[in-house]
Amino acid sequence: MKKLLLFALSAMFLTGCTMKHEVKLLDANDFNTEVDGKNVSLYTLHNGALTMQVTNYGGRVVSLWVPDYRGSYENVVLGYNNIDSYINNKGERYLGAPVGRYANRIANGEFTLDGKKYELFKNDNGNTLHGGEFGVDRVVWDIKSVTDNAIVLNTVLPDGMDGFPGNLDITMTYTLTLDNEFRVDYLATTDAPTVCNLSHHSFFNLKGAGNGTILDHELMINGKVITLINENLIPKGTFLPVKNTPMDFTEAKAIGQDINSYHPQMENGNGYDFNWVLNKPMGEMGLAATLYEPKSRRYMEVYTDQPGIQFYSGNFFENRYEALALETQKYPDSPNQKIFPTTVLRPGEEYHHTCIYRFK
């Protein structure tokens, strides 16, 4: 209680006004269970003006409370209020979760590495999406450490899981910084040649979860081309300039402005579901996107060291367009696309990935 009061006072100081709604924490008892012989719990982090709750089942962010310009708080990510809804989920599988070992799609659920063909679990129209049947979103992560503002989780995906080679050791760190950032850091190693492409899949609505659609959110994406896709959302191995298309977010615009415009790519995606090639040096941290909600005046910047970002506008939600995902990553289907940045990870190498969601 003392920590929460100090948090509330610091938030009032940072926003310069009196808070009108307090943070409504989920009950940890609703997340305490056991899965596959491992304990599942709920953890609460706070720093600056942010409060976040995380479960080690799937390493999921279940809530993220952010103030608006008046100091009123809303949870800006979609999530469930109990662990059973995640375990027995019949709706959107990836709420708040990391995804991998290969984020996005791999065509036909197969790839060849060092002359050997690997057959993967197909879970998306004959393709493999976000790692297959299991992936990092359906494992119980081990907790390495927890502080007031950070949690470090670890898991090892076994060799052969969903068809992928190599035991992949992943350490993931969530940090809330004093700059009002939600920071995600990945470090992964392998004992055999494999592919690795991790990402974070929170669904954001800066009005607050359940408070309407994201169509009036103003989005900027720092990319001038997308990876061209077919009707199954698989890259064709070529790029499409976004200028004079509905996919042009080089200057901020309302998401709903062009979402119903005709374009063959929009027909394929049933809305926005594309990978933008980021306009920054490969491997360097840089701005990927910005998102602004005019009523609350919440503003979010996305930074990453990855070469691409997938913008998904919630096209297949029961409540269509109720939230969006901005997933920093390498390009989809890279194991089958020679001209794309490689996702191959070998023994002795380290995979690194940082994504920052900064709130203002």
Uncertain residue ranges: 1-20
Our Rg estimate from Cα atoms comes to: 20 Å
The residue fraction in helices comes out at: under 10%
Inertia-based shape: globular
Characterize the largest beta sheet: strand count, sense, and whether it forms a barrel: 9 strands, antiparallel
Determine the N-to-C terminus distance: 26 Å
Q: How many DSSP H or I helices?
A: 3
Average pLDDT over all residues: 93
Strand percentage lies at 35-45%
**How many runs of DSSP E, i.e. beta strands?**
28
Across the major sheet, the strand order is 12-13-14-15-28-24-23-18-21
Q: Which structural class do the helices and strands define?
A: mainly beta
Overview of the molecule:
The chain has 360 residues and is mainly β. The protein contains three helices and 28 strands. The protein has a nine-stranded antiparallel β-sheet with strand order 12-13-14-15-28-24-23-18-21, with no helix packed on it. A five-stranded antiparallel β-sheet has the order 20-19-22-25-26. It has a four-stranded antiparallel β-sheet with strand order 3-4-5-6. The chain is globular. The chain starts with a helix and ends with a strand.
